[in-house]
Design a protein that fits this description.
The chain folds into 2 domains: 166 residues, HUPs (Rossmann fold, 3-Layer(aba) Sandwich); 103 residues, Pantoate--beta-alanine Ligase, Chain: A,domain 2, CATH 3.30.1300. Helices cover 35% and strands 19% of the residues. The protein is built from 10 helices and 9 strands. The strands form 2 sheets. It has a 5-stranded parallel β-sheet, with helices on both faces. Strands 6-7-8-9 form a 4-stranded antiparallel β-sheet. Strand 4, helix 7 and strand 5 form a beta-alpha-beta unit. Helix 6 crosses helix 7. 40% of the residues are buried. Its EC number is 6.3.2.1. Pathway: Cofactor biosynthesis; (R)-pantothenate biosynthesis; (R)-pantothenate from (R)-pantoate and beta-alanine: step 1/1. Belongs to the pantothenate synthetase family. One of its GO terms (biological process) is pantothenate biosynthetic process.
């Protein structure tokens, strides 16, 4: 379905009582995306995905024009995953001429990637709400690799009374720990060899935390020290944050913490994170 009218017509064919699961994507699908489709399939009767490279969430010097768009390969992966329908709209259909309404969350969107990419989460929240209004799913699944995006969407749904159950899907990683990302294809062989240090920095901080170090500043400094083992990695941030508000904390307390990192390798920006849960083994999210 390539336009809103076709989507509405398809939506009207669903039987009463059928639970509809939705997985919004920007395409260039990988095993992480497919795991989200599988999670939706397990929880819903019908699953629809969308592919839309959303211009509102790209900054003026970011990679909108070169973002990978292998649509034929994506269609084959969706079919193999048993996805029932795909919404593939154009920019013109999603944002008609003169469109001037946006959605802006003003707390969890501000730090981390929000501080480094002004306007990014306004673009995310706007397109996700539009997609929810069009698809009208009962549940939607988002990859936890972008924990901040999940938090923004959850807050938007709560604050605006959007009747969609938001589910998070766990990070899927390469054998060496690198989190799967559509942008990994940009990495040169040398940058790809250095990239696993991002996850290694998270695991080193996790180990230090369970060894008794709870000072947020010292934990973040340790994470940066691990990244410094490679000159190819240029950190943008390495933060220890409250796991719900994403606010700054001095020490990791009873609520645990979100470890969040963003770094450039060449022209490629990668993010990763890990959730510290007191009293138990940490769980990777993102």
């Amino acid at each position: 379905m390539k336009d809103k009218a076709a989507l509405r017509a398809w939506r009207a064919t669903l039987a009463p009582g059928q639970k509809l699961g939705f997985v919004p994507t920007m395409g260039a699908l990988h095993a992480g995306h497919i795991s989200l489709m599988e999670q939706a399939r397990a929880a819903a009767d019908v699953v629809i995905a969308s592919i839309f490279v959303n211009p509102l969430q790209f900054g003026p010097n970011e990679d909108l024009s070169r973002y990978p768009r292998p649509i034929e390969a994506d269609l084959a992966k969706l079919e193999a995953a048993g996805v029932d329908a795909l919404f593939l709209p154009s920019v013109e259909d999603m944002y008609p001429p003169g469109a001037s309404t946006f959605v802006e969350e003003s707390m969890v969107s501000l730090p981390l990637c929000g501080a480094e990419r002004p306007g990014h989460f306004r673009g995310v929240a706007t397109v996700v709400l539009k997609l929810f209004n069009l698809v009208q799913p009962h549940l939607a699944v988002f990859g936890q690799k972008d924990a901040q995006q999940c938090a923004v969407i959850e807050r938007m749904v709560r604050d605006l009374d959007v009747p969609v159950d938001i589910r998070r899907g766990a990070i899927v990683r390469e054998a060496d720990g690198l989190a799967l990302s559509s942008r990994n294809v940009y990495l040169s062989p040398e940058d790809r060899a250095a990239a696993p240090l991002i996850y290694q920095s998270l695991r080193a901080v996790e180990a230090a935390y369970f060894d008794g170090e709870h000072d947020a500043g010292k934990l973040a400094a340790l994470g940066l020290a691990v990244l410094a083992r490679s000159e190819r990695i240029v950190p943008q941030y390495w933060e220890v944050r409250d796991p719900e508000s994403l606010g700054a904390i001095a020490k990791v307390g009873s609520r645990g913490a979100l470890l969040a990192v963003a770094a450039h390798l060449g022209t490629t920006r990668l993010i990763d994170n890990l959730l510290l849960s007191p009293g138990s083994a940490a769980k990777a999210i993102g």
